[in-house]
Amino acid sequence: MYYLGLMGEYLKNYMKTRMTYRADFWVEVISDLLFQATNLIFIFVIFMHTNSLGGWSESEVVFVYGFFMVPFGVFSCFVNLWNFSERYIVKGEMDRIMTRPAYNLFQIFLENVDPPALVGSIIGGIIMVISGGQLGLSFEWWTIPALLLFTLSAVAIYTGIYTTLTSLSFYSDAPTGILPLMYNVQGYGRYPVTIYNRAIQVLLTWILPFAFVGVYPASLFLEREEMRQMAWLTPLVGLVFLAIGLTSWNYGVKRYRGAGS
Amino acid sequence: MAAIEVRDLRKTFKVQKNREGLKGAFLDLFKREYNEVAAVKDISFQIPEGEICGYIGENGAGKSTTIKMLTGILVPTSGHLKVGGFVPYAEREKFVQHIGVVFGQRSQLWWDIGVIESFELLRKVYRVPQDEYKKRLDELVERLQLQELLNRPVRKLSLGQRMRCELVAALLHNPSIVFLDEPTIGLDIVVKSEIRDFLKDMNREHGTTILLTTHDLQDIEALCSRVIMLDDGRIIYDGGLEELKDRWGTGKEVLFQFGTATKLDQLRGWTGALPVIWTAENDLNAKVWIPRDIGVSEVLGQVVGQADITDIKIIETNTDEIVRSIYQSGSADKPADTDAESKEGAVIHV
Amino acid sequence: MSNQWGAYLDFIRIRFLTMLAYRVNYYSGILIYSLNIGVYYFTWKAIYGSGGELGGFTASQMTTYLAVSWMARAFYFNNLDREISTDIRDGSIAIQFIRPYNYLIVKMMQGFGEGMFRFIMLMVPGMAIAMLLFPVKLPNEASAWAGFLVMLFFSFLINSQLNVITGLMSFFVENNEGFMRMKRVVVDLFSGLIIPISLFPGWLGGIMSFLPFQAITYLPGSVFTGRIQGASIWNVLGIQVIWFVILLIPMIGLYRASRKRLFVQGG
């Protein structure tokens, strides 16, 4: 309850800040969408030259992409760690966080909320509806609950991975270069991972489980039997990676408090 | 009961060694070497409730490392530590509810929106009940005269206005112990004295314990009944301010500007009987160093009547300089004669 | 004059050394670049399916193109836009402007130092790894290599010019973050890094040929994979030089306007 109240308060402040720079909001939304659009363009261009990607049709791949955008938008809105190293370690704002009576990681999440990212989730939903319609997917009673569950699980996976990587800031001089690169890798989970070779499949399933933020859970709605089991694993993977993320974060904070900046 | 209790507190850091040159950089890429550096070396002190204590020392003496340990940010390497009945690093989230912290050079306010919004947010963070918050805020706002500033975004505030708001932000939850790291840095004299008065009143009315670091001797003079001085991670002085100044103060310096050329020999002649030291850049500017046991007025009296003075500036020794002179003398004994030359730094500081 | 350039060269050296200090970035860089190549390799393999030719690329040419483009990116990529934007936002650009050197040249030199670091430490070992893992075929003739290196240098120049232009825009727009993100996306897509331009639909390809982005990746990559040969190579180089010269105009213009804004209007 305390943390929910805080979230409301931080969001309110975000909105007030944004009122002063209203144009920025839209620039940010557009640049986000442009980024998503390039990926869609990639898909469209590919399917101009082929009918199937590893046995998946264009509408199916687009649907997966639509699903991929939903948790990604939520994650980008609430978990924004891009500047962590520079802002909190180099400029020393971590000290201020540490003198406040709330969980430090949560404070950092809240101080960096980025609501424009949610527009991506909405667009993703629309893409799912359109391509789902083209595919004639059936809408069941469990569709919405499953969508919510998978979205939350995928957000947990993202949060876990990025928190783990960001906690490296407590050890190394500047691991900031990893995050943009990870940004590249996460995109690969939105294509049918079966087209990759074994090593990359294992990587995207168990090590950097980005297949669970895109193709695995989406396959449940596409009624693709071969990935059904993987789809239901999503919440479990989410829990495990979130736990890893929080553990390594707490460990990093412990080290920060031992070593200073 | 002591508000702050420190015994044999020690903090060591691992510092990475950078090898020189291109070859060194390549070697560093694959194997790092570290040095151990002790920033705080087994210090002990106690601060009773309701005391205002100045914590001084040169940059790198270990001041901020100590403050960071006392506020729960850093975990000590060894030693015993208790602040307001808590072990800061062990119960951080519960502990910080009882302290207020101001880092003079870092803001805790939201940059783009009205100050009041930041206060509202901090109210939620510190779980201050609405009525209590209202009362406290009214009191602080009135005392620091912030009425008109409350709705202004922080980026539009002057440094002095911002610092007053920072104080409010750190005090909204009515902490019993307050840590101030350079609270007056960069402020003009009027704001400085306003802030000093405010802190003194707060200490008197609420019995707030205050630990502050500063480079400004006037902060210490105005506020602190006690001074702890740090050098190279060790406490080299712990006691009253007057005693410190008596033992270590190196006197005052007075700068003169003359309307007509005045020779150094003339000046020396006028104050011939006094053990003061004159120096001059040219015929229109001169400087005299006056030992502590001689009043400034005594010297001025000799000069004022005789010379055509256009400007006078009195420069008080500051804490840095006292620390430096203690450090230079190498032991806790009274320093040998200090010559005016070694105090150039002080002039720049003022 | 020679002293002046000595100072500029020092910026390359210092940036190179700085990069060396960030070893985590270095290790992860090699890994991720190889992974990127791998993922796209398998994606294209799935697209090619049984064989054939797409947009004039055979499957094996596509593999080489991919590896070369990503490795080239390692060299030409830099964050000059972000660095300049940060300098502007925190005000330190004023100090840079009054120093006795040209800020833009310094930035270019720093970018070059970064590029050299990645070229030696990342691109060369990365290429070796890529050749081990995937069927990448590199040309044997020395002339192709020499040509590629020259074009790579121009890729760097053009990309850095675009970065400088985006960075300097921070003087004139309140929050440049969005534009910098857009630029990054546009460069990756339209330079042909993600999809060779010949695969774009005709009209889009047509537009691309009037934009500078293809000169960053697509054209040099096409030469190196042997799709463009003989005298046409000179055309490619010519296009790069032309874009380099054209982009100097907005870059210098913006730089002048920035100085004016800073010194006349006080920031």
| CATH homology superfamily name of the largest domain in chain B | P-loop containing nucleotide triphosphate hydrolases
Percent range of helical residues of chain A: over 70%
Whole-number count of domains of chain A: 1
Structural class, from helix and strand content of chain A?
mainly alpha
Q: Which oligomeric state applies?
A: heterotrimer
Number of domain modules of chain B? 2
General shape of chain A: globular
Largest interface: A-C, 39 and 37 residues
| Biggest pleated sheet of chain A | none
What features would you highlight for this structure?
heterotrimer; A: 261 residues; 72% helix; B: 350 residues; alpha/beta; Alpha-Beta Plaits; 2 domains; six-stranded mixed sheet
3D structure, described in words:
The complex is a heterotrimer of chains A (261), B (350) and C (267). With 261 residues, chain A is mostly helical. Chain A is 72% helix and 0% strand. Chain A has helices at 2-20, 22-49, 58-78, 84-90, 93-98, 104-111, 118-135, 143-166, 178-186, 198-207, 215-221, 228-259. The longest helix of chain A is centred in the last third of the chain and has 32 residues, at 228-259. Chain A is globular and about 55 Å long. Chain B has helices at 21-30, 63-70, 92-95, 115-125, 130-144, 159-171, 189-206, 217-223, 241-248, 264-270, 296-304, 319-329, 344-349, and strands at residues 2-17, 33-48, 52-56, 78-83, 99-103, 177-181, 209-213, 226-231, 234-239, 252-258, 277-280, 285-290, 309-315. The model of chain B is unreliable at 330-350 (pLDDT under 50). Chain B is globular. Chain B folds into two domains: 2-246, Rossmann fold (3-Layer(aba) Sandwich); 249-349, Alpha-Beta Plaits, CATH 3.30.70. With 350 residues, chain B is of the alpha/beta class. Chain C starts with a helix and ends with a helix. At the B-C interface, helix 1 of B face helix 1 of C.
What's the gist of this structure?
The complex is a heterotrimer of chains A (261), B (350) and C (267). Chain B is α/β, with parallel strands linked by helices and 350 residues long.
